[in-house]
Write a structure and sequence with these properties.
By secondary structure, this protein is an alpha/beta fold. The chain is built from 18 helices and 11 strands. The chain is globular and about 75 Å long.
Length: 461
Amino acid sequence: MTWLLFKYHPMKKNGLVFLSISFIILLNSCNEYPPNWSDGNTTGIKIDGPSYVEKLNNALLAEMTPLSDDPGVWSDEQMYLLDRLSSSEIVGLGEATYGTSEFFSAKHRILKYLVENHGYKILVMEADFGESILINQAINESRTEDIKLLMAEHIHKWTIKTQEIQTMLEWMSEYNKGKADYEKVIYMGSDCEFNNSDSYLLKRYLQETDPDLYNQVFDLITSITQYPSFFENISSDEYKVLIEDVTHLLNIFEENRSNFVQKSSEKEFELNMHIIQVLKQVIQNHYHATSSTALDFLRDEFMAENVHWIYNYYDQKKLVVWSHNIHIADDPMYSSFGGSMGNYLKLKFGNKYVKLGFSFYKGSFLAKNYQGIITPFEIKAAVPASLNEVFSRTTKTFLVDIEMLNSTSEWNEFFKEYNTLTAIQELYTPYWLTTSYNKPFFPYHFDFMIHFQNTTASKQF
């Protein structure tokens, strides 16, 4: 439980993060540099020693599909395991870090395969709901030349302000050229951390449909969206007023539904009603994340709710959800408050939701250091006895069906032991590699996994 006390989350105050990291650094001052594990380390499994490791390796080699380190050259034939997803409706694509180029390129390649071969049309990114609508308008209209500027102006998270994401969004835009609306791919966001774009879209909709009402509720919208900044506390009194204001705004929209629908459409009205719901999520999310129950944040539950809303809103019923491994995984023990987004989606959609996680042995990646500066880091070898390290013994990059792997006697026995998987989020310090970034792994977390033997850092534009 100790790692939870210092677990980084972007909604925590800067001071708490700084003090927590400083404390850890003092405790680890005798270990200034991260461990440099050798390629010959043992797994630490206490069952028959090396012979058991060899059996694991042979069983994995028999089940996996070898892949190139460059996802751009993966062939459709190598992706055949993903044909199982043709009968699914929501595919979760994870990532072991927020700053690895190969993870982003692999997810782009998988998205392309699912769009072209299995009818998937919607990408739901770990990005704010409102900002994604503004970018999707350019994708829908194939305004490829506007993508980079829109990303720079509207995307909040450094993690997806990368050349890899730009390449993918531009591909989506080009794909839509000359296609009917029902054939086009759609870009949406599931997150609820900021309200800038949501507020802008709501005001724009009011100006276009009912200027008089816009003038009446302008101050109300402003009061909802101009509260303390992201890292500041919201008092219980402020929180109560904000929730009352959002509820009042929802009621005003509902009372004027017929007029809104007449001036726009049922779809446009429903979209803007959900924008107000997202404004409410932002307030709730911030309040719970900065209160004394900081570990009990609601973000994953809200992201799952937004994925579910997007699923119901569009006629196309096949979605790809892009997020970190920890959000995509079916993990009922994600936090002391509840499960991960993937756990909520699994409970809601059952076998229609399929999860694909990522692993890596060594390489570089981007993350924020303890001063909040985006920095390239390098891991020279995986933590001994982690799933990353056991996977690495094939010396290959590969795709594997976890259910099929678990059906072998060797891996079924292995998965009954305590297993870990490396998971690095926005903040990284090498001192925590073997502890905070080495999370428990269970085979039900993912249906498929892609392991990279070597990785490189993503490229910011």
